[in-house]
């Protein structure tokens, strides 16, 4: 969910020697996504739907991938214009088409080809190109989790939950934040989806609290990495981008420094009325995640 620590987790995994971590949010969704959740979550954050009458090139173009494509095509307006990125979207498209021609045109193959083509053509990628695990990030993909894990038998989903007071406190820093009621409805739907998915796929769904990550990132993420067959690398202790240390996670997310103190300060920035409204909206999830005494 937005401002729940997904960007921070993404940056903590970035330097792992056995992972190929996408540079920004991997916004795989397409405009063909249409269901009862479309009004709640932007389609760019959803598991993609492709036009059955389309072509591999049209599929590649349909994937929104906004953060990366803005950085590649109009870098002067990108919030990531300060980082180097030697990647051609046109060459990535050609590599993508070549992969589809050697596999098949299906949703799981399209997604796999998109990630593989990205790292094939990312010329200044500093990590291990022979790594076997691709890592993407979307703040709402868990609502499509059953489809993801069913279509890709080797996939894992890592869901990060943060106490809703701190999360909404950071959400309010955005230029056009969601209303409190809209934010909490989406927050609850995310947690419900994650816990349901964990029941269905207990070995491939990992639910962690941001608060625990802030205290012990290597321990928490190392445990998950180990379950996936890779080690608990020392790089898990601090956020990076393309292997370069980050003084703060921003602009990858509104969380600047993932510390216990900053997390509590965000929660306490809310008015007492907002704090009460959030507690009422979060309901049973506060007890489930151990958030009853945050404030």
Q: What is the percentage of strand-forming residues?
A: 5-15%
CATH superfamily descriptor of the largest domain: P-loop containing nucleotide triphosphate hydrolases
Number of strands: 6
State the helicity in percent bands. 40-55%
The total number of structural domains is 2
Under CATH, the topology of the largest domain can be stated as Rossmann fold
- Summarize the main sheet: 2 strands, parallel
CATH architecture of the largest domain: 3-Layer(aba) Sandwich
User: In terms of per-residue confidence, which ranges show pLDDT below 50 for 5 or more consecutive residues?
Assistant: none
> Which whole number gives the mean pLDDT?
96
The assigned structural class equals mainly alpha
The value of Rg in angstroms is: 19 Å
Query: What order do the SSEs take from the amino end to the carboxyl end, as H and E?
Result: HEHHHHEHEHHEHHEEHHH
**Which CATH class of the largest domain?**
Alpha Beta
Main-sheet strand order equals 1-2
General form: globular
Summed up, the helix count is: 13
- Terminal Cα separation, in Å? 21 Å
Concise synopsis of the structure shown:
The chain is mainly alpha-helical and 295 residues long. The chain contains 13 helices and 6 strands. The protein is 44% helix and 7% strand.
